[in-house]
Each structure stands twice: as structure tokens, then as C-alpha cells.
User: Fold these one by one.
Assistant:
Number 1:
Amino acid sequence: MRVNTLIWFVLLVLTGCGGRQMRGIDSSDTLVVKSSPVEKQATGMDMLYRLYKVYGISGDLASDPYCPPFLKGVYYANGMLVFQVEGDTVAIRQTLEQKTGSSAFHLELTGDSLFSQKDLIVLQRKVRQRLALPENTDVNANVVGYGVGAHHLSINLIVNTSESQQAFRKKIIDSPALQFSGGRMDEPCTKEGISGTLGVHLKTTSPSFSVQSETVTFILSNESGTNIHYGADYSLAYEREGQWYHLPINPNVISIGYVLCPGKTEKLTAHLYPDVHPNNPGRYRYFKEITIGDNREKILLMAEFRLED
């Protein structure tokens, strides 16, 4: 699932804790600023509310057409509101103080190597367009998310190696604003699980699968006499020269809970992503965390399998 992250401040501005509508504020009122980060951020939300009201902004500040041209983005640093701006900072500060009724903010002059959120949104659109091209299917398969931060465009990869970064920069876009994250192929795995306990068992549907397999499947059985609970997440490991390493997978999962009743079985599926990291023949491990009983005791289950030519 691709996650495209934009910063939607309007949701923060229009609602307070618990979804309560915030009080009306007149732009001529002077805000009282407290010292704690939480109090500073609450003041920042009031300031943004005033700014949105004055300019008629209804969406994300960095991309809304009614946003004044000198404003390039906004974020919080230690609770303090930071405006990314371009132009005469003296005049801009005077304007913002008048519109927000406060001086409790920082200005950040963007340009050169300091990217604003508006710059990053433009880059994000180009990335989205180029990833969708048929000739970039191989790179797109490795991308699980990209989003705008305060100063970088975050690119989340399944496999985050220098080679995969180079492929992205060559085929999609090359910019110093890119910030990559994701799994590597050399992260040691020290996890140890068990195949069964207390009447709960995990096993593969086959002792081996093809190296070209996109998925492998497992059977989770419950003969414990009580319910077991688990989520959609799992992890994989592979053996290389006698050492176990994490096999990178898509970290984005649906946050949902499952219940397996006593006497029931469930088929589980793990994705191997052979188009992202060609899987070599050898030993692999599948890890699945469950909880059992009313006290929700955590148990890490493990099933081992092989990939073969």
C-alpha cells in the first residue's frame, strides 16, 4: 500500500482534543504564549487558525491557492511554529505578526539547498508521475511510500541499498532533497521463535518453495482450548554463510486484529518480493507473534522453509 504523506494543518486548526470545535478568534486579539512545548503548539494552532481565516485558506497551507506567495510551508520545532518563507523577512514578520496577533513564531528563509514544503510538493508530484510509467515498473516495485517532510522528500523503500537508491535517482528523479529509508540486506536477525506451544502450532504448507515464488503459505492451528489473537504483521529472515539476516519486506500493513477460536486453523501468507530482491536458494524463516488466553501472553512463533531452484 503506497502512503503519500502531506501535512494537513487545517485538521489541527479546526478541531481541538476530542474533536471539539475551537473557539472563534478575532485577529485583533493578542495571544498569550506559555513556555511548554505543548502550550507553544496550542498557541501555534491558534495562530494558524487566524492565518487561515484571514487569507481564506481551506486546505494544506503549502499547496492552497489562497496562501500568500511568500509562505512556502509551516511546521513545529519543539512546539514552536516555524514559517518557511521567501523574500524580505523583516516585512514578512511584520505581516505575520499583524495577521496572527503574535510574535511567537520563527521564520525560516528557504532557497538554495534549504527546500521548502512547496518545493517538495512539486518534487512529490514528479515522483508520482514517473513511478507510474511502464518503463519504471522495476523501481516502483521497491517503493512503498513517499511523503513531504519539513525539509526532505522521504522515499521509503523495501530494500534500501546504495544500488536501489542509485536506480531511483537515475530513473525517477535525482535531487539533494531525497531522503531514503528502508531495510537493508545485511541486518542480522537474532530472533528465535518456536513452532508450537500450549496447543498452538505453526507450520508451512510445503517444506520448500521455488525461488521464483511470490508468496509462501503457512497453517496456524489452535488446539489450546482458548482464543488466540494476532495481527497482519510478520517478518522474514534468510540464512547466509551460517548467519541469519532480516529479509526486507513491505512494512506497511493494515492495522487489524484477528481471532482464532479453539479447534480452528487459518492459512497465512507471506510475500517474498522476488522482483525486488532475487531470493537465493537456501533456508528461510517466518516469524509471527500471537497472544494467547485472557492474559494475552505473547508468543513468537517461527516456521522454517527452503527456497529451491
Number 2:
Amino acid sequence: DCVVLQLQALNMSEEQTVSLVDVLEEDEELEEEASAVLAGSDSDHCSYPQGYVKRQALYACNTCTPKGGEAAGVCLACSYKCHEGHDLFELYTKRNFRCDCGNRKFTELQCKLFAEKEEVNTLNKYSHNFFGVYCTCSRPYPDPDDQVEDEMIQCVVCEDWLHGRHLGCVVPDCVELQEMICESCMNRNPFLWTYAAHLAGKDSCSSVMFSCSCVHTQLVCLLLCDLRERVSAASLSFLLDESDTVLAYENKGKNSEQTQPGHDPLMSALDNLNRVQQLEIIHGYNDMKSELKDFLQRFAAEGKVVTPDDIRQFFEQQQSRKRRRVDAGRFYSP
């Protein structure tokens, strides 16, 4: 399915071709992104017993709690075990949230992983994200009616996702920009404007720059001491907690995925086969790569877009040829 979706999105001209290597490289990038979000959360056990988890991957179920009802969020494990086949909204990550799955908000569903739950989680915070809309424009993502290519950025305070063009400021073109506070949250906490102006200095790539010149060191120290008091009073202490950041969570997920033994299922499968079987699989892989490349080049030469039906037909032909070879082998075997 991943291959189908990726190839569908590739508009190939006469000068542009796509090889299986390109597809696999893109798939690897997608897997790394998924690992960053999901590997930091438990995919087998409901997170409810852990209480209000500092940060975790969350989902909202449009099947069980549609718009017009009460907002609710479920953990990664419950999205797999309790809501399989349901219409889910991926919420990325949220902080200080306790899994709602099976509580009072779910009138016809009981959590399969942890049944003894309170009726509601009073400390959970909800937004329109839980009904599948985002940004100040309250639109879905991806938005089928929006033809503008625009990156969405998450506010570290309200944790809503906003289009770059709806932030109320110019987004710095800098990879070091990791975290953002939206204009609405800045206005709700106006004291933050003071620190943004002083601590950002001349560096437009960072909302708060902690690495300052000696001239500004004393000012920065005074501001940071005052900042700690103010953010604590405004219940924004997470802004000063580096372990709370999305970046820290993603790095935890990546490290967890890399340290797990045998996290590459293909290599694990090959290790369990003998030499002859390994060679057969490698030759089969190379044959498919060559055939897929030839198949895609025909579309590139004609300037056509590869559709899911085209890819499905390709793999059906592969399976048909494989069955004919197997049947022929059985017919002629002594």
C-alpha cells in the first residue's frame, strides 16, 4: 500500500523516471518519521495506568466520538486493539494526556486492554484537532480543497497545528527552528513577547536563543530567572523543560527503534534462511527491481502518471507469472 501511495503521487515527465531504489529510500524516510512518533509510545499496552503521560502519540476516533459529541483521545495501543478499522484522526503527540478509550465518552465501546477506568479524565485538554480540523482556518489535513503547498507547524503551547501562512508572521527558512508559539498563545500570555524580543536577538532562526554573546549574558540570566517565575505562574513550565519537547520525544523514539534487536524485518527473515534460499530471494528482488524499472520507464516516456491501478496490475502480473512457473515446475518434476 505504501508503494502504491508513493507512486501515485509521482508525476513523471520524459526526463523523470522512478526506480525501486527511489521508492525504497522514500519509504525508509517515512518509516523513520513514523518511528520518531510511534516508537516512543507503547503499541501493546494501554497507557491509562501510567496516568497523565508526559507525551505520547494520540488518536481521536471519528467512528466512536464524531463531531457534535464529546472530544476524546486514545493511546497508540488502543488505536490498534480497540479501534481497528475505525475512522481515526492522527493527532501526532500531546502532553499530559490520559487515554480515554472506553470511558463514559464511548457509549458503545469498552477498552479491551484496560477496562477499569474512571468515567472521565478531568485534566485532559481538548481542541478542535480531536474532530479532525486544524489551524485558525479549522480545516482538515490533508485538505482536499486546498491547492496551496504549505507546511504545518505545531504550537508548543496549545499544540494545535497551523499553516505557515496563518501564523501571523514569516516562518524562518532555517532547520534549527524546532519549536514555535503561535500568535494567539503569545497574546494570551503577553509577557512572552518581552522574552521573544530580547532572547531572539538578531538570530531570526530561533524563537529563543540561549547561546548569547558576553554583552547580553547578564541580561539573559535576569530574563531567564524572571521567565521561570512567570511561566510557572501561567502554568507554562513545560516551556523550560527540554525533556518535554517534541524533539526530545522523537529522539527517544528513534533511539528506541534503533536499539531494538532485529528491527529490520527483511534482514531478520534472511538470517533465518539457508544460503540457497537467500540467493533465491536476492535474485527475485533484483528481477522485480529490473522489471519495475522497465515498467515505470514506459510511463515516463509517454509522460503519464502512474496510478494505483497500474501498480496493482503490475504486481498481479508478477503473481500470475510466479504461479505459472510453480505450476510448470510441478508438471515437469519427476
Number 3:
Amino acid sequence: MTDSRPIVLTGDRTTGPLHLGHYIGSLVNRVALQDSHRQFLLLADAQALTDNMGNYLKVRDNVLQVALDYLAVGIDPAKSTIFIQSLVPELSELASYYLNLVTVARLERNPTIKDEIRLRGFERDIPAGFLTYPAAQAADITAFRATVVPVGEDQIPMIEQTNEIVRRFNASVGQEILVECKAVVPRVGRLPGFDGKAKMSKSLGNALPLGASPDAIRQAVKMMYTDPNHLRVEDPGQVEGNVVFTYLDAFEPDTAMVEDLKARYRRGGLGDMVIKKQLEARLQALLEPIRTRREDYARDPAQVMAILKDGTARAREAAAQTLDDVKRAMGLNYF
């Protein structure tokens, strides 16, 4: 019997273990989606190489690390197909066809690409693979005929460009071969680093990995940015921009309790250590079972790689069917 559930494509660049920002931004949704959708979970090692060719061994090692994070948070390989991007060559062939449907100028106008180029200081010295990644991402999505793609707000332009490519391809062959997809943005947007900077990032040293030890969690919360003008307990404090409250909003399910803390903090009479203790207790409870499951899987890396091998085989089968349909539509079915 054919599985008629909607198809969702998710994934992460394999540039390091996942952290709390990934968890609240996407991993919670992915665990839920695997019960209602056919989910393909991509370990984007090929994408990571677009600006990490000098660190290819790190990219290789992080395939296992990211897979451990997926399994630790509750991704079930019996429900979700976890696969390695570089081992599905059909994706590269699809991307090569899609590149004929976009211009260099259009790629350079993609807001996500523009921001990433600026962030990395490439200026005009842009790796070609990095600039053309929107076409590669379109291949990742369309290969599995995904209709749903959970992304952060900054990735919406990539989804828009994927749909442009879908429409152009279908128009060029006169058939509805590829399907458009919808971006799904999580309730909580990008989580700031615990130092108050706008983005949580391992490279900035302000991220808390999912496998963090109890002491690392404690130290991170202790360092968290609050209200610099809240010098005494009795002083009124500001909630907006206060990282501790941002994290409580993201991770504490008792919203009434959080709102009460905010009201007391604004009035004055509530110290920073009180709210930090509340947040630490919540993060310790959240990460302890994830850390334990991660450690259990890490004891048997061969088992994890077997899961990835099986998932990659299933992903190749799905991608090969789409590639065959695309080539037939273009008249490339010679034999």
C-alpha cells in the first residue's frame, strides 16, 4: 500500500554537533513530524564542503556527531529516513540541470546567500559551490517531492528560489513533474547566544551543545546576559532583551509561571540569580535524557553508521525515481 502522507525534507550542515538553537528551532518539530509525514532527514556534508574544503575531515567526522544528536532527541530511523547527502549522487545531477534555469545575478540577489557571503567575508572571492547552493538545495527538496520544509526565517528566500526553479522546469517541459514546497517556520525563531549576541553559534563560543554536561549547563546559565541596569534586587528590571527570559519563553512549558516571574522582575524585588536558577533547572531536566541517549548511541558508532547506510539506500531509491522522471521529461531517456 502506498504511503500517502505528506513528505517533509529537513537537514543540517555537518559543521559541528547540534546545539540548543537547533533543538528549539527545528528538532522538536522534526520529532513530531515523523508521526504525521514521510520525513527525509539530510546530513548536508556536501553543502558543508562549499566553504570547508580545507576542513573535509572535520566535515566527515561531524556526520556521525549530527546523527548522534538526531537519534538522541528522538528521531526514529524506523519512521524517518536519515541519509548522507554526498552519497546520493542523484542530487548533484539534478542540481546540474537546475543551474540552467537560474542566472548568476539571481543567485547573487538571494538574500540568504548575500547574508552568508557577508558573514564569511568572501566579498567577490566566493566559492562557486557556495554561490550556486540554492540550486543544490532545490535538488535536495525536489528529489524527494517534499511539500513541507521546516526552516528558519532566514532560509525562506531559499524556499522561494526552489519554487521558482520548480515552476521554470515544469514550464520548460510542459508537464507538472516537480512539486512546489511550503516553508514552515517554527514558533520560536533564532535563539540568541547565552552572551546576548544575536546568533547562537559554536564558532562564537556562545552555544550549548545537546550533549553538554551538567557543569557546562550551569556555567552557561551563570554567564547569561540579563539587564545590565538591574544592579540591586529591589530595582525594576527589563525583560525585553534579557536572554534568561528569552530562554525561559523558549523552554519552560509553564507559561503562567514565566509571566509571573516577568511581572515580579519588572516591579523590582526579584534577583537575577532566582530566574537563572529556574532556567538552569529547566535546561538540566531537558538535556539530561538527551545526553544519556547520545552517550548510549556513541558507544556503538557502527550501529549508527548502519542506520545511515540503510537510510541512504532508501533515499537514493526515492531520488533516482525523481531523476528518472526529470530526464524522461527532458527527452534524455535515450535507451
